[in-house]
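pinned: reference chain
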Amino acid sequence: MKILEDGIKLLDPFSTEAKNGNQVWHLKYWNEPTQEWLIVTKTISKGKHTKKCPAEVYNYLEKRVREKIYKYSEFKTNVSVSEAFKEWLSKRKLEVESGLISEGTHEGDVIYTKDFLSEFGHWKLKSIKTIHLKKYFDEFVVFKGLSRERKPSVNSLRNIRSKILLFFEYCWLEKSYISTSPMSELRIKKHKKTQSEYDKLKDKCFFSEQMEVLLNHMKEFEKTQNAKQEDCVRKRLFIEFTYLNGNRYGEGAGLKFSTVNHGGIWIKDQYSRKSSVKNPINKQTKTVTSRRIKAFENDDTRSKEIIQWFLDHNNSGINDDYIFVRKNGHLLSDDTMNRYLHRFENQMPDKLSSSFVMHSLRHSYITRRAEAGDTETEIMAKVGHANPNLVHTLYTHVRDTLKFDEQKKFKKQPKLLKIGKSA
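pinned: its structure tokens
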């Protein structure tokens, strides 16, 4: 393959013979906008055949390649946002298939840019300026036009900006549809957390004593449930397991007996909320770094006891390989678990209502590991985070200087856990 000074990629020319005896020279070139190899040709009259492509023929073919590429590029500089967006999503889909990004990341590409596409889809790319985007972000609301209309959370707005930035960089750096990204000069006033926001973030951690109180309240509640008692036990054990291991809800719900042993859990996928709890389907993890082996902590025998309990009690014949299911074999949904946690918020008035969600258990695990002396790198590996700022800024509220022994490697162990302690 030959790459010209202006980046055009060419393959070696080759010839074929036409039915009338003429020689046809072909030159393949890579067309970046359509991501495919195209061909230009030059015909030589019968009787003038050559084994090697003549210089004048090759120069002609190279000229034709440039004409086609630059004519296409000139046409494409007037591309609309919706046209370029389809190309960008196709490219991101290929990155999912090649393992560069996860399916969850690609789903975010669609979700977080939906409103932007609705607003700017019919615009020409070149007509969008920084001032338009600043106005868009300053006025951005969710549930627009409804009684629930409100400003998005800081995290949601950050995700939206990140996706739109990636889109414009694709149009600028990879496609040259625009001469520069209008996002590069965008300056948005940095959000300063209020004291109530800091309090809310800090409250999302359940410390050991608080978790013990919560679990005791749940045990007392179970005694009043009669026919529903076993399902209440299952919810409590799922909550306790998540607290001990710091997994996301989807990762925990998607766990199977085939991906756990005495050493820990292998998080290779997660439950897809697009599927039903009766017929669950797993999908890729949220990010590539979320795929991990999470070893049980050295002093954690409780996680093994919980898995053993489900192994002994899951006998509905439905979804047999999934661990955290109801008595009837249906998965415990995110809404079900969050509602169950909220049931106990009045019995713990010192904590905010917003803390009684499954994701708070992940906050709790990360904070407790920081207290135990784990480094940010160790915590990132355990919870599947790629960005250390997420650990430092969003989760970690208490730090000390204790050193932590390096996490033991995951070792192959018997699939059946024989521990025998009751729930």
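why pinned: Residues 263 and 341 are 29 Å apart (CA to CA). The chain has a mean pLDDT of 85.
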